[in-house]
Amino acid sequence: MVIKKDILKLIGPIITEQTFISSMGIINTILASRLGKEAISSIGMADSINNILIGFFSALAVGGTVVVAQYVGQKNQKAANEASKQIMYSGELITIFITILIWILRHPIVLLLFGKAEKIVFDNAILYLSISLVTYPFITAQLVAFGVLRGAGDTKTPMYINVFINVLNVILSYAFIYGIKIINLKGLGVEGAAIGIGLSRLIGAIVALYILIKGTSVVKLYDLWHFRPDIKMLRSIFNIGLPAGLESLLFSGGKLITQVFVVLFGTASIAANSIGFSVQQIFNIPGNALSIASTIVVGQDMGSGDPVAAKKSLYYMTWLASICMGILGAVSFPFARFLVSIYTTNQDVIDIAVKVVRLNLACMVLWSLSFVLPAGLKGAGDAKYTLMTSIIGMWAFRIVLGYVLGVVMKFGLVGVWIGMFTDWAVRGTLYLIRLRGTKWQKAIV
């Protein structure tokens, strides 16, 4: 399969960006792993909550991406600019409200979900979550700015910013986790990991907002001090953003429930689970890039009034992702133990993690069908269908089957991951059926 030049131009910067994000995330995980399995377990537990909320903020930003992409397809720069401001303000207001709510409830939430964890793991999870909460508004500012720029077809600027803030994140995290003797900076362990990533998010938000306010040839965030809600435009944004956000909440909530199952298996399994997902990030890079690209391309095709081109583009990017990830999985399979051993020297953790990583590599094609396809459908405004499909896959298969295999039948972490792969297969099949029809091309934005 030949990679089309226009697609390559779009996904090239995204792949570079995703590679840096994943690499820096892996380095952060390795830095935390060196503090011990308790540290990586506590960060993994806190991040399972963080990821739910960050996923929700990201999904809200998708509404802005799609609307901007469709206005760009219509050559309506004024409306694209206004959509940028509407999603930035509304996204920040929602984020601040959620941040305050979770801050108040953070202790009972962690107690409810992970009360059976060891005390040191539990306490560090509370600490890490508390610091992370303060950074949520910065995350939303970044996500919205990047989404708007990508919707306008600019994937290079988000790449440059993300490369910068992720390198900065690793430097700051190392400094705050282990300390720097020359300047008498004490190592803060888990707390330092949270501070490092928090500062990088703040700086990233400032840079992203500066770029968007300065503007590009296609889109600009202007006249920020004068904001009046545009109900019609907000309805268009949230017709996509809210179903996508609800989908993300329910999907991530389901993942959190499976994390609760994992806690029952002990600290070694919690650590192995965190490592498994960290390794998964590496192999998802091509798929993540094509997921982002499919939202942009389909959105612009639909905005220009060409649903046939949108369908062809989505088919093309889905199969391209499947081929790339299938090859990557096959080539990497023999090196699973080596990859896992980079994170930890604990043999119990390595043995468990290797099993789930190998299973993941064998199921890579299923991932592309269950993530690239719905990203494109959302680009067409078909967010309600992806919401319902996600609920079916997550709650009927990943959770129920994961519990039966992992807890009831005592397959442990492997059983929980098999439930996840089954979810991928079910959702991928349902999305393919949807793509072959025409209803998704008639969604109203």
Automatic annotation (TrEMBL):
<keyword id="KW-1133">Transmembrane helix</keyword>
<dbReference type="GO" id="GO:0015297">
    <property type="term" value="F:antiporter activity"/>
</dbReference>
<feature type="transmembrane region" description="Helical">
    <location>
        <begin position="257"/>
        <end position="279"/>
    </location>
</feature>
<dbReference type="InterPro" id="IPR050222">
    <property type="entry name" value="MATE_MdtK"/>
</dbReference>
<dbReference type="InterPro" id="IPR048279">
    <property type="entry name" value="MdtK-like"/>
</dbReference>
<keyword id="KW-0813">Transport</keyword>
<keyword id="KW-0050">Antiport</keyword>
<keyword id="KW-0406">Ion transport</keyword>
<comment type="similarity">
    <text>Belongs to the multi antimicrobial extrusion (MATE) (TC 2.A.66.1) family.</text>
</comment>
<feature type="transmembrane region" description="Helical">
    <location>
        <begin position="314"/>
        <end position="336"/>
    </location>
</feature>
<dbReference type="InterPro" id="IPR002528">
    <property type="entry name" value="MATE_fam"/>
</dbReference>
<keyword id="KW-1003">Cell membrane</keyword>
<dbReference type="GO" id="GO:0005886">
    <property type="term" value="C:plasma membrane"/>
</dbReference>
<keyword id="KW-0472">Membrane</keyword>
<keyword id="KW-0812">Transmembrane</keyword>
<dbReference type="Pfam" id="PF01554">
    <property type="entry name" value="MatE"/>
</dbReference>
<feature type="transmembrane region" description="Helical">
    <location>
        <begin position="126"/>
        <end position="149"/>
    </location>
</feature>
<protein>
    <recommendedName>
        <fullName>Probable multidrug resistance protein NorM</fullName>
    </recommendedName>
</protein>
<feature type="transmembrane region" description="Helical">
    <location>
        <begin position="93"/>
        <end position="114"/>
    </location>
</feature>
<feature type="transmembrane region" description="Helical">
    <location>
        <begin position="52"/>
        <end position="72"/>
    </location>
</feature>
<comment type="function">
    <text>Multidrug efflux pump.</text>
</comment>
<feature type="transmembrane region" description="Helical">
    <location>
        <begin position="192"/>
        <end position="213"/>
    </location>
</feature>
<feature type="transmembrane region" description="Helical">
    <location>
        <begin position="161"/>
        <end position="180"/>
    </location>
</feature>
<feature type="transmembrane region" description="Helical">
    <location>
        <begin position="356"/>
        <end position="373"/>
    </location>
</feature>
<dbReference type="GO" id="GO:0006811">
    <property type="term" value="P:monoatomic ion transport"/>
</dbReference>
<dbReference type="GO" id="GO:0042910">
    <property type="term" value="F:xenobiotic transmembrane transporter activity"/>
</dbReference>
